[in-house]
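Reply to dn_fold:

You asked what the input looked like. This is it:
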Amino acid sequence: MSPTAPAEAALLLEDRSRRPAPGSATDLRERGLRALRRAAPALFAYAAVRTFVLLVLGVWAHKEGHGIWPTLAADWDSKWYLGIADHGYERTLGTRRDANNLAFFPLYPYAVKALAVVVPGSRATAGLLLASGCSFVAAWGVFAIGDRLHGRRVGVLLTFLWACYPVGVVQWMGYTESVFTAFVAWSLYAVLTGRWLWAGSLAALAGLTRPTGVAIAAAVGLCGALALRRGFSWRVLGGTLLAPLGWLGYVGWVGLRLGRWDGYFAVQRLWANELDGGIETLRRFRGHLAYDSAPELFLVLVTAVLIGSALLYAFSLADRQPLPLLVFTGVLLAIVLGSGGVYFSRARFLVPGFPLLLPLALMLARASRRTLVVGVAGAALGAAYWGGYMLLVWPSAP
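and this is what came back:
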């Protein structure tokens, strides 16, 4: 034995004794800080893109003589959420179209109401702070998935591309997309890492945030069922059962409130949101791309995003993405493309579908430096232009 061996062993034991116990608060804090440091480049890229978009929007709005605060914090869907925070939900179905606030899920407006108690300013300010803050949680989750599947470089690029989504300006508006994406991203990450109770709990919260929460519930539920076939686990069972409770709970509550089992779906019919198998979507595609001699530019963008998303899903299948990602984006696409309702908001409905961007992130990761620079610059400039166009030129809701 080497004469230094006892000393080395003593130093090793001393080093181990200084390490925090696994699962302790200190250990969790240190692991969280390490994960945050690893994600820092992605979060910086995300903040840089969104800040650039906001600056361009501010300059554009100033030249047009518009203020951007009301549009970001208290217009369109934001107004509905603030109304729920102020006055609660309707008690009857009614007959007026596009007028029943039971179509909007409850987690975000009631979170805004709670946050406004401790945040100075109006509830609109609280809603904007909540959405923008959750956008960073979402960006971290997007990075975590890209990093786990393909490494840090792809994780950073995936987060950057999500920031550059053509209608990504809603990520810093009083809308639910950022909150929903945060729940979705970390729920999917929890499935990939085998944390089933976290996966189910976050999926349930997503189901209380947006109607498309059923997509993440389907992803967690199907993957959990397959895991249970391989071997029973109480944690897997618990996560699988938790996943749909948020969506089912709200839909069931609306039914009880209106006194009819199909109450929520009746509300959606008043908003002209029904699944038709994609007939209306195909009709719109044909009209905007083939028959309309002067189509509205924003509707052309929406059409391009929908077609591009379908193509990216085909590439995702070819790349054999993990099943949870494929199920989530597949169900999300089926809902968005199969809807017979409002068309101009459908690009926004796909904001949480960030796994669809993985093929692009992989392509950029393998590209030459020149191609990468051109792609990054083009994506950022496109995000700024379309963000301004959507809020300052397009006359309807984002």
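Residues 23 and 31 are 10 Å apart (CA to CA).
Hope that clears it up.
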